[in-house]
Each structure stands twice: as structure tokens, then as C-alpha cells.
Amino acid sequence: MDIVIRAAIAFAFIFFLTRVAGRRELSSMEPFDLIMLIVLGDLVQQGVTQSDYSVTGLVLAAGTIALMQILVSYLNFRFKRARMVLDGEPIVLVEDGRVLLRNVHRERITRGELEEQARLNQIESLEKVRWAVLETSGQISFIPKQ
Amino acid sequence: MADQPDGIVLKRHRDLQGRDWHPWLRRGLVALLALVALLALFGFVGQHPSTTKAEAAAATLDVNAPSSVRGGLLYQSRFTIEAHQDVKDATLVLSSDWIDGLTVNTIEPSPLNEASRNGALVLELGHIAAGDKYVLYMDYQVNPTTVGSRTLRVELLDGDEPVTSLTRSQRIWP
Fold first, then answer.
1. Would you tell me which of A54, A64, A107, B144 could form a disulfide with A7, CB atoms 3.0–4.6 Å apart?
2. Confidence (pTM)
3. Looking at chain A, which residues constitute the CATH 3.30.240.20 domain(s)?
4. Are B8 and A102 within 8 A, CB to CB?
């Protein structure tokens, strides 16, 4: 029974961490982030399964995490308010080529990062951006001016 | 008519109306994480050892052990008996919570005899001469399923005669 509780707590805590860390930090995957992800996975595994090497333990832990994921996904789908809490909301970063400083500061995004993301979207200058939106996934979507 | 992308509400997503408190919530949660890390640094969740002492005319008993431990961790309890007078048949009586839900890896030096008395663990240590010091080490590992608070009582006897006793508390974090 305790492995189910530990898996549920691990899921809830990781979910909490992802919401606290901010979406930009989690959407970018630099080499350091990749290593940290592996380290985090190892730490979580130890806390969940501890010294349980059984297939039953694996089924219980993985099954609980899958169920929690489905529950979050259902809440997201079913309730708008839950979606705001669980997923967050988009934030407009650029409007008509003008960087909205209050919004980018709030998400700890520098102008350089914005320009880099624009270049990755084949946009050479923020002046040519009609809208840039930080999506709930942490990706920045760009809509160029016509 | 605004030409914003579908799904974008300018008041909410550009002007952040009604979202002013969100960064403060996030800062509060970050502060909470920092607080937990700080408490851990100060040993709140294990496992800095602390010492509890009980003095009597015949002997002093002192126990050094962590008062907080976590599931799966290895730790040590050290029992030190300083005899002020001859203790002919020193015996430690440990309440069941000293071993229940824990794996005792070793007890060093091995007691002369071990027994159970009303659920308590009885360790017969033998003769401790006046002025001598006897140190007993118990090494443990916390079973992952054991959690909660417990009261640990230890008595020092000379044969059947109580010499001194002390009580400690221990918290086991999951």
C-alpha cells in the first residue's frame, strides 16, 4: 500500500515543482537540464520504490503515476478553473513588435532569449512580430506581421 | 475589434488582469521550498545525533542517537555507562520502540546475554567496575515502511535493581 502512497506523493511533488519552477525553465533542455532531469528521476525512483525490486512494485508505482496523470488530464479537460491552476495560462510577450517588459520580466525572459526564439522561428527581428505568446507548455509561439 | 490570436484574452493574457497575485504565490511556494531545505540543514528531518543523560549515584547513562531519522537510512545509537560505583551485573532494558520497525545491523560489543521482558529488549552487559566506562553501539537501518513518532525508554539495572533510566523521542520521516 505504501508504494502507492509514495508514488502519488512523488507525482504531486514533481507536479508542484514544475509549477513553481516556471515553464520557461522546464521547456528549455540544455545539456545541464538533461543531466538534472536524469538525476531528478533517480532521486524520485529511490523515494518511490526504495528497496523494492519486485515486478509488483513496478506495476504499483507505474500504475499509480499513470492514474494520477490521467486524473490531471481529466481535470484539465473538464474544469476551466482547474486548467488555470494545473496548466497555467498563456502570457503575451510581444505585441506589434513591442516587447511587453512587465510580462517578460515576470517570466524571467530576457530580450536576447526572445530574439533567439524568434530566429529559431525564421523571424529575423522582433519588429516583425505581431504577437509572441508564452504558451502553457513553455514554448513561445510567434505570429508575424502580415 | 482586436485581432488577437484565438484563445487570447487581452485583459487576462496581456494586461494580466486578475493575475497580479500569481508571482507572489510562486514566490511564497519557492520560500516554502527554501524553508524546508533550511530546516533540513538544521537537522529537523534527520539525522543529527543528540545526547540525553541520566545521572545516578551508582552510574551515569548517556545515549547519543538521532532524534529524527528517515526511511532506509543507516544510523547509530551509542549508549555510554560511566560507573561511579561497582555495577556488578549491568543490564540495559530497551523498550520495544528501540527495535520495532528497524533493522538492527549489529550490537557491539555483543552483550553477554539477550532476553525479552514484557516486550522490552534486555541486554546483559556484565560487570562494570567503579570508574570504568562501558560503551555499547547499536547500528540500525530504518525499514522503509516505518513512519511516525515514538518514545524510546532505556533503563540501566544492576541485576534487578534499577540504577537510572531515561526517555527520548524519535521521529521517523517517510
1. A64
2. 0.75
3. 91-144
4. no
Report yes or no: A16 and B29 within 8 Å, Cβ to Cβ: yes
- The pLDDT value given to residue B111: 95
Structural fold of domain A91-144 = CRO Repressor (3.30.240)
Question: Hey, how many other C-beta atoms are within 10 angstroms of the C-beta on A122?
Answer: 8
Label residue B19 by pLDDT band (50, 70, 90): confident
Cβ neighbours of residue B27 closer than 8 Å, sequence gap 6 or more: none
pLDDT at A49: 86
**Residue keyed to cell 520502540:** B97
B38-56: pLDDT as tens digits: 998 888 887 889 999 999 9
- Residues A27 and A141: their CA atoms lie apart, in Å, by 13
Residue B156: name the closest of B52, B55, B51, B42 by CA.
B55
What is the ipTM for the molecules in this complex? 0.73
Burial class (CB in 10 A: 0-12, 13-18, 19+), B49: middle
Contact B13 A91 (CB under 8 A): yes
Cβ partners under 8 Å of residue A5, min gap 6: none
